[in-house]
Design goal:
Length: about 375
């Protein structure tokens, strides 16, 4: 399932613990150098690596889910601010709030994120030697939800053709094959081998769905760029669209509203200086939030790229173990980077969430009770089924 936001912040002893675990991972990388002539891997340390990957992936999925929630909050904020201005100016505005995403569109993204976390949790459960069915009872619902996905539920048309979009969404069936492996194949190596393709397709779908705030290719003026779902994420050229463009539009709308309000207040003879000062602060505040929000989205996309690299190193580690060849001087460096990247991303997500809530309620700028959890950094030794 997709982990909802919780109330644990990335700070204090937990941050120190996170740094300790990153140091431990890097130290294990040097240990593997010393073991290059051996024919086995320390199972406990490998399981810890896989557990860290799993927790990081779950946290990344929670951040991405919050990314879309933040866009909706900005949209609601912009709507309320504009509605209040128009009513004060004597207008007769439309009072119906239109959400950015329909319920079905949100459900589709939740299904995709649930598949992503389900796969990561499956890896951790199998690596720990536990039975998947007993520890991950929601697998059947994951498979059912994936079957109902449609390309039009995602923002892909800005950078893919209709056929490419359909093919990419249909490729989510790779998770179905993964989750229903027969018991004899429910081992780590087959799961990771099959999961490589599924994970890449899911990451690409999310990467494209988050999109870009401006065109990255000249042909965007008349058609979708020449992308392929076989490319690496860094090889994609996006046209303006997706979550980043949608959120940028909502931010621009609110900025325009506050500029209009300043003009309106300037024309009012009885307008107080304190009122104008507050409007200026709100105008500057929404622009700052817009910059931070888009950076958060870009960092989410970057984390998807690092996630694929970390998973690739886990696959390489397992293959090396099978072939009794452990030339792995950097086996855990990408996984440590992923752990660090997601930790920083959680912090950024919490920061932007608080900024948005402060704009919605300036008098209540206290830390949000809905801050994302960094528990993935502190529960690596816990039972993954909890």
């Amino acid at each position: 399932m997709v982990y909802q936001a919780s109330t644990i912040l990335f700070e204090g002893p937990r941050k120190q613990n996170a740094l300790f675990r990153i140091g431990r991972l890097l130290a294990f990388g040097f240990l593997l150098l010393m073991l290059s002539g051996c024919s086995h891997i320390d199972d406990n340390l490998l399981n810890q690596e896989i557990g860290d990957f799993s927790h990081s992936t779950v946290a990344l999925a929670a951040v991405i889910q919050n990314d879309f929630g933040l866009a909706e909050k900005i949209n609601s904020l912009a709507f309320v601010n504009n509605l209040e201005l128009q009513l004060e100016a004597g207008g007769n505005p439309d009072t119906t709030l239109k959400p950015l995403f329909s319920g079905k569109d949100i459900a589709a993204r939740q299904a995709l994120l649930a598949a992503l976390t389900g796969y990561a949790e499956t890896m951790a459960v199998v690596a720990s030697g536990k039975a998947v069915k007993e520890n991950l009872p929601d697998i059947s619902s994951l498979v059912s939800n994936l079957k109902s996905l449609k390309s039009e539920q995602f923002n892909l048309s800005h950078s893919l053709t209709v056929q490419e979009s359909d093919d990419l969404v249909n490729d989510m069936s790779l998770f179905e094959e993964l989750f229903i492996l027969p018991a004899r194949d429910a081992r780590l190596v087959p799961i990771v081998e099959k999961g490589e393709a599924a994970l890449k397709k899911a990451a690409m779908l999310l990467y494209l769905d988050i999109g870009a705030p401006e065109d990255q290719a000249s042909q965007c003026n008349y058609s979708a760029p020449s992308n392929s779902t076989e490319l690496s994420l860094s090889g994609l050229k996006l046209c303006r669209g997706g979550l980043r463009a949608i959120a940028a539009t909502a931010i621009h709308f609110d900025v325009t509203t506050w500029k209009d309000r300043l003009q309106f207040e300037r024309a009012q003879k009885n307008s107080m200086l304190a009122t104008k000062r507050e409007s200026v602060q709100r105008l500057v505040g929404i622009q700052r939030v817009g910059n931070d929000l888009d950076q958060l989205y870009a960092d989410s996309q970057a984390a998807l790229t690092v996630m694929l690299a970390a998973h690739g190193e886990i696959a390489a580690t397992l293959n090396s173990a099978i072939n009794s060849s452990l030339s792995k001087s950097f086996v855990l460096s990408k996984n440590a980077l992923f752990l660090q990247k997601v930790g920083a991303l959680v912090q950024s997500s919490n920061k932007v969430t608080q900024e948005v809530e402060a704009l919605a309620s300036p008098a209540a700028a206290a830390p949000s009770s809905q801050s994302l959890s960094d528990s993935f950094l502190t529960t690596g030794d816990d039972d993954v089924s909890k």
